[in-house]
């Protein structure tokens, strides 16, 4: 279990993490999601004792990382996939780590097998592809057979087969009762591997929720309504937090911020006919953008041109 309590971390005048609290529980893969610069890496560094919070506390298995007698058995982390000597073989990279931490040699063969690198274990790590480098980083994280596994952007650089592999690996680690915490700035990536989500923006907690709950909460927020008296209906529905736009013709509206049932009930009470009431499915990307649109660190000054067919359907409230 990882417990982050009221943690704040400043770098000079920059607040990287602001009064952040959350718990990562064993048995499920938890994603750590947020736009670039949201404070994910800083938080992960504090979990593994590479940085100290200015205020608040971070514990792993009930203690700060540095208080563990054999920290590699407690926490395995992949924070910099490329922090590998390029001239060293994968085997020797792991051997160097194992010998300084009292881990037996046979464990090296085991983890190389686990990450699918046993046939290239003697090859120079400098010649590895990005995906192979990620696998080696994961092997190093698992070397001490840790209860808590922390991986910063592990899916980055993996091909579809690699993504399936890492999903199965993370799931099996969680099923064994371990705490598994993986970061990404892409909801599409994290939704493939994680069940639960901690979402951050500008160093603050935005959501602590399951992937399915996030999808459920966001879908149905936009409703397409067809009525021969659309303009009267639009006036009736307009309210704080509700956006009504005409779409696809004079009798069609797009309503954001009201559920379909509420729209139908209000129309009925006012005696206005409704010919169609269609809740629109919102993609996970759109759900994530809705959640984080106020928290994006670096926004383009002018909107980027939208490729045809990808117009964002959700208007922010
Ligand atoms: N050592 C540092 N010195 C100064 N500022 C830093 C330092 N480390 C991080 N920051 C700043 O703190 C903020 C949070 O950075 P962090 O790397 O934790 O975010 P992140 O969510 O991991 O982003 P990314 O997805 O881009 O890796 C950013 O604004 C970053 O510029």
UniProtKB/TrEMBL annotation:
**Which CDD domains does the entry link to?**
ABC_BcrA_bacitracin_resist
Under the heading Pfam families, the entry gives: ABC_tran
In this chain the ABC transporter domain maps to 2-227
Keyword annotations for this protein?
ATP-binding, Nucleotide-binding, Transport
Name the residues that span the membrane: none
Q: Where is this region: Disordered?
A: 298-317
Identify this protein by name. ABC transporter ATP-binding protein
Looking up PROSITE patterns in the UniProt record yields: ABC_TRANSPORTER_2
Among Gene3D superfamilies, the record links this protein to: P-loop containing nucleotide triphosphate hydrolases (3.40.50.300)
Family, as annotated: Belongs to the ABC transporter superfamily.
- State the species of origin: Pengzhenrongella frigida
